[in-house]
Amino acid sequence: MSGRAGFFTKHIIILCLAFGLPFFSRAQADNEIQVYASSITPKNITLIELHQNYTFNGIKGLADPSAARWVEQTLEVTRGLGKNWEIGFYTFVGIDPNGKYQYLGNHIRPRFTVPDSWGWNVGASISLELGFIRPDINTKYVMDGELRPIIDKTFGNWYFSLNPNIAFNLTGDDKFFGIGPQFKTVYNVQKKIGLGIEYYSSLGTFKKIAALKEQEHLLGPVFDLYSSPKWELQTGFLFGLTPGSNQQVFKLIVGRRLGK
Q1: What is the percentage of the chain residues whose pLDDT exceeds 90?
Q2: pLDDT tens digits, residue range 91-110?
Q3: 84 lies in which domain range?
Q4: Fewer CB within 10 Å, N- or C-terminus of the chain?
């Protein structure tokens, strides 16, 4: 990477943070909104990511729309352990509508990717995320997590990724195993930027699929920055397609890789 490219990358990231952060005091979204790629963090490399999400408008029909206006931020630290293994750690925090900072929980996530020697025609990996979380300081922690298969493929300048995600709660009054497929496609422009779309869903549980109006379906444009192997930037704006979805969601991920 040239010095000019590195200078450009760092300043794009700084500008995104500068323009994005003022909005984070106005709304709430999920702690982490990301469609994963099958590739993992290389051995002895550490990837530090900050996920920052908010909604302009929550689900339709909220009696108090301001109740959704939280800052949601996640610090994710991932370490490459070997050729096909990595482990990630998450810390979830939030700022409530009154501006009070709240610690919400932690997760751990080992992930395995299919070796090239297997000869698969697609990239594939699987992760198991597990930990404890709460929606606010007045609510008890629950043990929750997700099982995330990841399948992706590149065709020329096009990249596609499918995450047929399974989320679950293991404790508390609302135990469930939920179905939530996620999808991403991006067109690579001169190996510098990616322009595409992302889709997220929550369809219900294995016991009962929710009525369509109660399901969550989010779709919207995304922008990825590729000009530096050390830096990562992903941002997007998602629109709710059903009344049970957050209606307008902004997401921003900024990451830095450390090590040789």
Answers
A1: 67
A2: 999 888 788 889 999 999 99
A3: 3-258
A4: C
CA distance 89 to 179: 23
Tokens for 106, please give them. 């932690």
In the three-class reduction of DSSP (H, G, I as helix; E, B as strand; rest coil), residue 163 is classed as strand
Q: Rounded to whole angstroms, how far apart are CA atoms 233 and 155?
A: 22
**Residue 128 is part of a domain; what is its CATH number?**
2.40.160.40
What domain count does the chain have?
1
Give Cβ neighbours of residue 110 (< 8 Å, ≥ 6 apart). 85, 86, 87, 88, 127, 128
Q: How far does CA 217 lie from the centroid of its chain?
A: 15
Q: Please give the helix or strand (H or E) that residue 128 lies within, else none.
A: strand 123-133
Element (H, E) at 3: helix 3-20
pTM of the model: 0.85
Residue found by looking up tokens 């109006």 in the block: 213
Question: What's the CA gap between 130 and 127, in Å, rounded?
Answer: 10
23 within 8 A of 239, measured Cβ to Cβ: no
